[in-house]
Structures are given as structure tokens and as C-alpha cells.
Design brief:
The chain has 242 residues and is α/β, with parallel strands linked by helices. Helices cover 31% and strands 10% of the residues. It is built from seven helices and four strands; from the N terminus they run ααββααβαβαα.
Length: 242
């Protein structure tokens, strides 16, 4: 999708969060990285880098999954004109499809517990196909995912200072009928964390996009140009329509 947007005239910045992929430290087991650090430091730095690279241009944000969770801990969130969420919802297991819950509990308490004991961090083994995860980050994610209120009880502790009620840039959230995680319930629960942001939810089926499957991870794979065009059309608008 980054190439697609760039071909239409956007200056696109992609980046890895700290502790992930090319930003991973050598000794992940000793990492002190916390989950909100991705928003408090990395997302802030991304906006600052864009401002330096393209002074005077409006900035928009396209977020996948956890990328939509931490606008409220960004000290410079007000510099972003609008947000496109792709497969964004809370991690609370009760808002996910019933068929996915056994897999989630296996990840949290089976694989997760074993990996922490064996390596000190979450290693991509045993069916986990995501990136390796720092231990404190994983434990916080696990704690939040067992609460319907997700991260909101930590507004005055781990997430402090936070600005969730101050986010006023429009948010449009795309979710998909075959995504077991970012369901309509989970998507709306996450948007509730931004009470003063104009917002809307766009539910799409794979058939709407012209593909057989999207799921939670498939929106950025080849052949999704119909979806990318929707995102581009909305991000390129210059008004407050959610």
C-alpha cells in the first residue's frame, strides 16, 4: 500500500516500532520496552520526521491493528489531520470471534508462558507468526486483553500523561467480515477511547475488495487496490468528514 500511495503523490513514511524487526535490540529478554512506548516515542518521532522532510504539508496517518491504539499518548497527535484505521480494535478476547478464543488463550498462557520461561521474551515459535516481543510489552498486552475496558484503567498509571479525549482529528475505521480480531464490537470499543474525534466504521467483505480472504493481516497484500483506493480517496480529503 505504501507504494500505491506514493505513486499517487504522497510522501510515505513506514517504520518499525522499537524492539521489533530492524529496530530490535540484541538482548530482547532484558528489554525494558513497554507497550505504550510505541505511541509515546516511536509514533511521535515518525510525525517529527515527516514534518522535517515535508515542511508545510498536511500529515495523515494510516494505522493497522495496534497502530490505532496509541494516538492518545502522542504528544504531537494534533499535527495529524486524519486517521485511516485498518483492522483496528481492542485486544479484549471477549470482543473477538468465539472461534478465535482458544487460539488466543493458547498464545497468552501456553506459548507465552513457555517462551518467557525458556527465552525471557516471546519468540516466533509454536504457531506465533508475528515478530519477537519484549517481555514487559507482552505482559501488558496480555493484561489488557483480559479486560473489556482494555487499556482505559491505566489512563492514570501506565498511560499517563494521556490525551485520548483531546484527539479531534477524524478517524475512519475499515474492518473486514472475516477478521476474527477487529470485529465490529472490538472496533467500536476502541473508537470509544476517542470520544471527541469524528469517526465512522466501514465494514467490508473480501468480495467487496475482489479477493477471497482478508482476515486480520491481509489488507496490505497484493491485489487489494480497491481497498487502497478507498483509503487514498479519504486521506486526501481536506475536511472534517469522518
Amino acid at each position: 500500500m505504501a507504494t500505491y500511495l506514493a505513486e499517487r503523490g504522497a510522501l510515505v513514511l513506514t517504520y518499525d516500532y522499537r524492539g521489533i524487526a530492524q529496530s530490535r535490540s540484541e538482548d530482547l529478554a532484558q528489554s525494558k520496552i513497554e507497550y505504550p512506548d510505541w505511541g509515546r516515542y516511536d509514533m511521535v518521532a515518525a510525525v517529527e520526521s515527516l514534518a522535517k522532510a515535508a515542511p508545510g504539508l498536511r500529515k495523515t496517518h494510516l494505522a493497522h491493528s495496534v497502530g490505532g491504539h496509541f494516538l492518545g499518548v502522542m504528544s504531537n497527535h494534533q499535527e495529524i489531520d486524519r486517521h485511516a484505521f485498518i483492522s483496528v480494535g481492542t485486544g479484549y478476547f471477549g470482543g473477538h470471534h468465539l472461534r478465535n478464543r482458544a487460539l488466543e488463550f493458547y498464545f497468552w498462557w501456553g506459548l507465552g508462558t513457555y517462551a518467557l520461561l525458556r527465552w525471557g521474551y516471546i519468540k516466533p515459535v509454536g504457531g506465533w507468526q508475528g515478530e519477537a516481543l519484549p517481555p514487559r510489552l507482552f505482559r501488558t498486552w496480555r493484561k489488557w486483553s483480559h479486560r473489556k475496558s482494555y487499556f482505559q484503567p491505566d489512563y492514570h498509571t501506565l498511560l499517563k500523561p494521556q490525551h485520548y479525549s483531546e484527539v479531534t482529528a477524524p478517524i475512519r475505521s475499515w474492518i473486514f467480515s472475516d477478521d476474527p480480531i477487529a470485529t465490529p464490537i472490538a472496533a467500536h470499543d476502541l473508537l470509544d477511547c476517542y470520544p471527541n474525534a469524528p469517526q465512522s466504521v466501514q465494514l467490508r467483505t473480501p468480495q467487496d475488495i475482489g479477493v477471497r480472504r482478508i482476515g486480520h493481516e491481509g489488507a496490505f497484500r497484493p491485489g487489494r487496490k480497491a481497498l487502497w483506493a478507498e483509503c487514498w480517496d479519504w486521506l486526501s480529503q481536506d475536511d472534517t468528514t469522518p
